[in-house]
Write a sequence for this structure.
């Protein structure tokens, strides 16, 4: 991590073992994204009405869905705040060390973190304030997805497909 304190550090110039370690992490992030996509789209549902029913309870496909209990929301919040917070911190550091345009770096970090915070708060607002916050939840998911895809793409691109031009001279 000391390398990140050097403003000139770029992932495309990283040693092979560093690139392999970061790539392993990014592959695990992609697996995590795939599983959350299955959960969000398959279990919760892609529409605001589905999201509201998942957290507030109601009827879905002819079956009764119970509202999420306070304890369930605490567990969800706890897991997301720690795991996703750490994951996004690492992803933000990785994109900073890429050739991505500065504006894209800023907005992808803002979108990913903003989406994460809105996702964590949104479940509480849906459950205890109004089902209308399901629209906010959907927007949070879109922001997280958009930001995270950029945060994963650019490090992989720079490490494996857009490396140090000096290597060709060796």
């Amino acid at each position: 991590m000391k390398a990140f304190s050097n403003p000139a550090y770029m992932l495309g110039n990283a040693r092979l073992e560093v690139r392999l370690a970061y790539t392993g992490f990014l592959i695990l992030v992609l697996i995590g994204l795939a599983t959350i996509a299955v959960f969000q789209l398959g279990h919760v549902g892609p529409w605001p009405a589905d999201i509201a029913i998942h957290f507030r309870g109601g009827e879905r496909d002819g079956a009764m869905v119970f509202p999420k209990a306070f304890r369930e929301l605490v567990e969800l919040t706890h897991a997301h705040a720690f795991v996703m917070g750490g994951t996004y911190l690492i992803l933000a550091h990785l994109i900073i060390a890429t050739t991505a345009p500065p504006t894209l770096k800023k907005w992808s970090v803002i979108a990913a973190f903003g989406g994460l915070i809105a996702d964590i708060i949104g479940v509480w607002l849906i459950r205890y304030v109004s089902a209308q916050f399901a629209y906010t939840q959907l927007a949070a998911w879109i922001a997280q997805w958009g930001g995270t895809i950029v945060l994963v793409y650019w490090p992989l691109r720079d490490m494996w497909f857009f490396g140090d031009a000096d290597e060709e001279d060796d």
About this structure: Confidence is low (pLDDT under 50) at residues 165-170. Strands lie at 58-60, 63-65.
